[in-house]
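Reviewer 2 asked us to include a model.

Predict the structure of this chain.
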Amino acid sequence: MITDLTQGNSRKMLWMFSIPMLLSVIFQQMYNIADSIIAGRFIGEDALAAVGASYPITMIFMAVAVGSNVGCAVVVSRFFGAKQYENVKTAVCTIFLTCIAVSIVMTALGLLLGNRLLTLIQTPENVFANAALYLRIYILGFLFLFLYNICTGIFTSLGDSRTPLYFLIGSSVANIVLDIVFVAVFKMGVAGVAWATFVAQGAASILAFVTLVHRLKQLHTTEPYEKFSASMLSQIALVAIPSVLQQSFVSVGNLFVQSLVNSFGSAVIAGYSAAIKLNTFAVTCFSTLSNGLSSFTAQNIGARKKERIQEGYKAGILLVVIICIPFVLFYFFCSKTAMGLFMDANESQEAIHAGIMFLKIASPFYLIMGIKVMSDGLLRGASAMVYFMTGTFMDLILRVILAYIFAKGLGFGSTGIWMAWPFGWTISMFFSAGFCKLKPWEKKEKSA
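Predicted model (structure tokens):
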């Protein structure tokens, strides 16, 4: 269902648009968490550590896919808001052709450099082989990952957040079922976890692509449109490349953090692996709402309805505050229960303690993180990419530097790593929110 976000009550339209996106990411994160639960419960603590050790590397690939998703969505949203449907179709065709080329290059680089990256982040020998196997299978499915994220971005740019939800529900259920079949029944170990994701994601991406092609045919155009446009690619790149760089630099920063975590041994790696999956669940929910605000902002800029932008920002902040409360309460007060999903409390006490400490330190600051990512979403939708990247890099640099200072310099050990998260979120939130108060979309309109 295609939705025009430039009409109707701003809060109602944004919430109705964003909530299906939120449900989509909840299902997506559920099967990501299921991978770790099944690895830890059915294979063992070392398997959980192996999946966790490869996680920051897989996030580099995810960063390219998600960054491209967001960048493409902003450009397509603007054309859709302006009712320029020929440009919408040209942009989509250009995006998909570029997607194929980029995915081939990324897959080749991943297969070539995967083991070297695992060595670079000091992956322990007892989990290295399984981590390398999981990473290799994950990289083989990058084309599906990229294709699915691009389709999702285009759906949301057309105001359709429900179709991706349906695909995510089917993919998530299939992934969990295949996890159990491959690992518990066929005893495929860590490879079974990876192949389950490969198959489920592949099916979802192909179905999403076919559905999107059908949906685009509903946009009636009177003039022929280009199937590939260099100038269109340039417009997309102006937003997509900063988004990809932002996501990638965060992932590279996480590599440094993972290297520091790895220096404390496989038990801390396993605890961090479980806790970071739970943390990512929360942060990804906030980021998804941020993506919804980006599409809302871009459509209204395209329609020259700038008064709706501030209304959407306030509605987005209120929504993210509501969403963050259950995460804070559960992670802080029930952290032991949450970690018990991944590991046996009697056999993995050190790992569980590390994960509990992470959740108790990070979760009280989710409200601050939520405000930050919503501010980033507004800036990205307005194509204020310098402001957007400044706020993001501030968070990343502080978290990496402070993690090393607290853990090694001040001697807090692994707990010092977790302490860096709140500091990075808080300082960068003030920068991002401050940039929003400057209303950069008005300056661009005056310049134009």
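The radius of gyration is 21 Å. The mean pLDDT is 84. We have added this to the supplementary material.
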